[in-house]
Amino acid sequence: MTERELPSNAQIADAFDLIADLLDIEGGQSRHRILAYRRGATRIRGERQSVATLALAQRATELPDIGSTLQDKIVELCDTGQMAALVRLCERIPAGLASIARLQEIGPKRARAVWSTLGVVDLEGLGGALADGRLATVDGIGPKTITAVTEQLAALARGADLNERIPAGRAYPLAAELVEVVRQVAGVTRAEIAGGLRRGSETVHDIDIAVATTDVAAVQRAIATSRLVAEVLSSGERGSAVATHAGIRAEFRFTPPESFGNLLQHLTGSKAHNVRLRERAVRAGRSLSEHGVSDSDGQVTRCADERAVYALLGLPEIDPELREDTGEIAAAEAGLLPTLVTVEDLRGDLHVHTTWSDGHDSLVDMVGAARDLGLEYIGISDHSKALAMARGLDADRVRRQWDEIDAINAANPGITVLKACEVDVLADGALDHDDDLLAGFDWVTASLHSGFRQAQRQLTDRILAAIDNPFVNAIGHPTGRMFGKREGYPIDLEAIVERAAATGTALEINAQPKRMDLNADMARRALAGGVRLIIGTDAHSTTELAVRRYGIAMARRAGAAPERIVNCLPLAQVQAIRQESTARR
DNA sequence: GCCGTTTTCGGCCCGACTGTTTTCAGTCG
Question: Nucleotides on strand B with an atom closer than 7 A to protein CB?
Fold first, then answer.
């Protein structure tokens, strides 16, 4: 049997999106048929398992939004490498028009107008028509649209990605500042971050902020004059959109306080979640919008908080991180929603660095900062000697650090300081500290910092070897991914989860915003496999302890309850986990 | 094209803003 290359979920989704775009440009189609292709594409793109494999087993129709027609097309793509329907469509509508339609301010109707009026069929032709002034002659395209197209084509020419996603770690601090700007305004009773940031997404495309106010004009003024805002893109009674100096778009939406719950719910999304909720409302003879819930005779009920919105739909409140239309509404209805871990549940942090290795702050300062956050224990986990660039510790320096920790604990610092480490997993799978030294720690995290170019089998074997060491309690940043720098190295997560579950080894959710590793999907798979998670800040300074919020976001999106997170457990239980492990020796 | 507490046909989520218009279609979220 020959092994064939199956199309990825992204490739399948791209094909369906292209069909939708071209049908839209062609016009005359049922918009619901187009929507069905788009929904199918979105579903497939967000699916964790291989949809091609599912389709070949005639099981893709088990997914929501995927019917027999889409499944047949996926099978066809697997078998022949193309979809006949798409090929025929491309013969009628030039595929390059889809790229034009995806430009901001253009869309399918104007793309069609550009084609029928000028004969332009792709972005290159659009650039030509823009340069010689023909574009401005097309019906429905005025000076503002010309400006928008000019800017976008210039950005594309620079190699920019128009759909660039911004890591949450870059957007969140700005969003928090923007919320404060409007909270200072008289008449504002509440303001909250909404959108993908509130749902704990790894990346977002903009910042959404819901504002409850009795004085819209005052809020508009405060936004327009904020030092953070570069340009007001649009402004109305219901909201303002701005470009910030940080280069991130922010959208504010205003509401009277009595319907703040409706607005916050609406603006938090996800879009797919909201669509499901509205469909549910319609079935109950109601209509849901950001203004309220109206019943069949037009009576509108406004909700000051989200709980009331969900209650009107017969549901318990669903945590924002779960609102992705992945079965959370059914789970809510059945009373099966998990109680998600919160920042307040964190009792300790077992992954922090100090000036002993590559940290910026001293051990005593890190201890003090952790105590001030209300933590019960902190594990000082500096690097091992192989990471010379980070001034990793050898056995001699480890023992001297232990002396310092003993002295601090003896002085009653108001928090228990644990002897921990982040030991390197070397290229051959050996650990960078020998077992005698590892036995003396209170907690050991093993991480890969080198040899990322090895094959998946080799990388996985190194991690499995580390897991098998009875002195290892956790695997740090298991995939090594870094936003904007590198993809995670390839690992066989199922094999790692299985071994980690068997040995009681925790897998880390590294909370550094550039890492967020494990991500939510992988963390969910780890939980399903019976593994404990641990949220490590990997803080290299006292202020970095605050990044725990990003780790919590991943854990919540994974559906994690606090009892499944090692550092939400009382110290005695953490110590018991360590003792059980070393007893295997 | 998908789907079903209205179940194999006939529905399918809601609203705001903008630009290009002469009262609204297109686009966006």
Answer: 1-3, 5-6, 11-21, 25-29
